[in-house]
Structures are given as structure tokens and as C-alpha cells.
Amino acid sequence: GYPLVRRVNCESGDPAADDQAADVQANVNPGGRLQLVWRTKANWADSCRSLVLRFGFTGWTGADANFTVRFA
């Protein structure tokens, strides 16, 4: 299932480990805006991760959105 967390190489963006389930909380506000809270881990310091979301909207079936974050 989605969303997923993918550890990636900070330079190339290539996957560096198997995907894992992401610890997220998602809400849609009355105005229709999606708010996603991604709970990260302290031991991710000095690494890069991608949060992988899959959208199931009409015309978006099977489309992934990747957001890569560098943790300092």
C-alpha cells in the first residue's frame, strides 16, 4: 500500500533499500486541500528519503508523485 518511504542515494536519487510503509496522517480540509503529516525518524539523519504517493484520481491512475527530502 501507499504511501511509501524509499531510502535513496542523496547524489543520484536511486533507491538504496527496500520500500517501507510510511507513517503518515492525511486529512482533507473543508476547502478540499490535502494535508499530509509525515512522521520521520531521528536515525534518518545524514540520509535522503523519498515519500512516494500514488494518486487514484480520474486520469491519474497509477501515477506516482515522489518527494525527496534530505535529513540533516
Write the layout of secondary structure elements.
Elements: E1 4-8, E2 20-21, E3 24-28, E4 34-38, E5 47-55, E6 63-71
Antiparallel strand pairs: 1-2, 1-5, 3-4, 5-6
Polypeptide structure, described:
Helix content is 0%, strand content 49%. By secondary structure, the chain is mainly beta. Strands 2-1-5-6 form a 4-stranded antiparallel sheet, with no helix packed on it. β3 (24-28) and β4 form a beta hairpin.
Total helical segments: 0
> What general form does the structure show?
globular
Number of strands: 6
Distance between the termini: 28 Å
Strand order of the largest sheet: 2-1-5-6
Which properties best describe this structure?
6 strands; mainly beta; 4-stranded antiparallel sheet
Briefly say what this structure is:
This protein has strands at residues 4-8, 20-21, 24-28, 34-38, 47-55, 63-71.
